[in-house]
Fold:
Amino acid sequence: MSNAIVVCTWGEDKDGLPASAEEVLTLAGGLAKNTGSDLVWLTLGAQASGVADAASRHGVAALHQIDDAKLADVSADLAVEALAQYCAAQSPRIVLFNQMAETRTIAPRLAARLDSAVVMGVTGIAADGDALDITASAYGGDTRVVYRVAGAGTAVAAVWSTAITAESPDAGSSPASETIAVDLGSASERIKIVEAAKAEGPKLEDAEIIVSGGRGLGAPENYKLIRDLAEALGGMAGASRPLVDEGWVDSNHQVGLTGKITKPNLYVAVGISGASQHMAGCGAANAIAAINKDSEAAIFQHARFGVVGDALELLPELIRAAKS
Ligand SMILES: Cc1cc2nc3c(=O)[nH]c(=O)nc-3n(C[C@H](O)[C@H](O)[C@H](O)COP(=O)(O)OP(=O)(O)OC[C@H]3O[C@@H](n4cnc5c(N)ncnc54)[C@H](O)[C@@H]3O)c2cc1C
Structure:
């Protein structure tokens, strides 16, 4: 068993880094420092342009890359196979993923292959001798649980990145780069993507201002008011899950545990009760403003600004004010 803390990040964001890489590196870097372990950053497929620079800033000791042509469009079956082979050869202490749609399927399957523990929704890790105390968000963010992961074997964790503030320690390391060979000859992808859903234009996850509508809007045609206010404020429109389930808007708009995890400067929640599963996707906003006709609605516990009133009366006024 090596003592390495391995970060394996997925997806690419606008700064040329895999999504949430800085948050995962911040958490993993702290653990590596406290345990005197090497911090290793593993990438699958082509490496994003900003990786080398970020690795140096976060004190990464080694950059590992599995660049098999079969991993070009990283798919779950092949990724699990590649990672299982990697872990068998390197025996790291723990592999930390950024939690997102892909890694939600990959992390548990990897742990099963390694016959080890997996913890999802991770917000912190402390070492206690050979054991790791892994704190994770549970019940849709309602509570926190600490799992003690002990014993030999590589633990697997998926990091809830919005709960972590990225720090750029500027550690100034010069990570060694190594290409790791795996044999994917006999591995095949059992899932065939017939047509990938395409989201055009800017992403909700990157928006600085989001105006989201919930069931309190009453009828699908009223969602136009959300779009209009979002546009007038120079932001994007989001929604709570019932609106997506009812087909008022497509799933790219859904904010929450099973939707987009956002971190805007301003989040305007209109006719949204503030269920924990919704807050999981917007609770990290710098400021939340809420409009709700129920003064007892849970959303007001999270909101910095709140208006108790009828959204259908207030929205046209707000749109007019924002436009002028
Ligand atoms: C496993 C799981 C995952 C989930 N994932 C998500 C997720 O990703 N995202 C998500 O959003 N939900 C998710 N949910 C659902 C979540 O639990 C809530 O049911 C949902 O967020 C409620 O949506 P809402 O606030 O729009 O509706 P409601 O809870 O019905 O709230 C409507 C609100 O509108 C107010 N209102 C009514 N009329 C008006 C008016 N005229 N003007 C102003 N206010 C008004 C009401 O007072 C109320 O507070 C998930 C649930 C589960 C179990």
Notes: The radius of gyration is 21 Å. The first helix runs from residue 21 to 35.
